[in-house]
């Protein structure tokens, strides 16, 4: 539904399939905090695989700003009928609405479904276009009479644009690892305190003693049988926790076909048979930051410390060997700090249409933010690294 505004055109589409791939990915490449999860191929695979669709409670609204033939800004707003798969928890807000006889759902999120990875959400060719895009998203939410809009795990530029528009900021923590020009894994371990260094070596030894070895495959070298085995592991992890997996087999099939270069897989084997796997995403920029993202894992057998080996030590060793700058360990997990992943602020921003609830949430966020700041300071006192 095109709508004129000054010298540009706003287009709202119901699917990534209606948005041309080339201009979308070209605009993404211009962002300071691009990730593979905002690529056209990734978002479209979420739709076409049945993973993030209206049936599963994710209705995409692609908002784009065009100046002539040039795409100047774009984002995906998902209309939500629940709060699953977001990792910034607002269940208490929804309950408060319900207790007062108000509808919290549908709401809107500017997010990548099931993907708590910080990065650009508001793609724009300039700060001015980013502001225009956010204004268009807010206007769209108001027109549809939605309760709220939540920008989750946005970039610094997204947060700044949100704050300029009066959105409220919420702070959460993740744990990220930074490569300090380590020569090899032993050089990395040498920077840790004796206690942490000893613990990691003990954990790795437990896995080795069980006869478990690892091989890695990247991009096109990940075979169809590797993808099939990985999904068995991934699905089992979810089912063991009593939930079906968010992502379907078709999603990973499309990743293998259209975005294989963004993935790295570690497969654990014992006596020649695969028994566990972890999947890592990669942002490999030629002239920029090279980042690995811990994403999914699963095992068909139980081995003590296997999770740590598959999800942290193998990826960190690979990052050191291949010159990657950082490894992001995903949502939550204070235990990651013992593996040298340090606490990192990961803000989100929020707009609520109801003035009284917006005021109450603002008060809550101020108190929560003070508590989060104290928590961050306490964590920093327990650094795994040796004292300088």
Could you characterize the architecture of this molecule?
The protein is α+β, with helices and mostly antiparallel strands and 388 residues long. The protein is built from eleven helices and 14 strands. The protein has helices at 21-29, 40-48, 91-99, 127-143, 156-164, 185-190, 194-209, 224-240, 249-258, 306-321, 355-380; strands spanning 3-5, 8-13, 58-67, 70-80, 107-110, 123-124, 148-151, 168-178, 212-218, 263-270, 273-284, 290-299, 326-331, 342-352. Strands 1, 2, 3, 4, 5, 6, 7, 8, 9, 10, 11, 12, 13 and 14 form a 14-stranded mixed sheet that branches. Helix 2 runs antiparallel to helix 9 (249-258), helix 4 (127-143) packs across helix 5 (156-164) and helix 8 (224-240) runs antiparallel to helix 9.
Give the biggest sheet: 14 strands, mixed
State the distance separating the first and last CA atoms: 59 Å
Percentage of residues in strands: 25-35%
**SSE pattern:** EEHHEEHEEHEHEHHEHHEEEHEEH
Structural class: alpha+beta
State the shape: globular
| Number of β-strand runs | 14
- Outline the low-pLDDT stretches: none
DSSP helix fraction: 25-40%
Provide a compact summary of the structure.
The chain is α+β, with helices and mostly antiparallel strands and 388 residues long. The protein is 37% helix and 27% strand. It has helices at residues 21-29, 40-48, 91-99, 127-143, 156-164, 185-190, 194-209, 224-240, 249-258, 306-321, 355-380; strands at residues 3-5, 8-13, 58-67, 70-80, 107-110, 123-124, 148-151, 168-178, 212-218, 263-270, 273-284, 290-299, 326-331, 342-352.
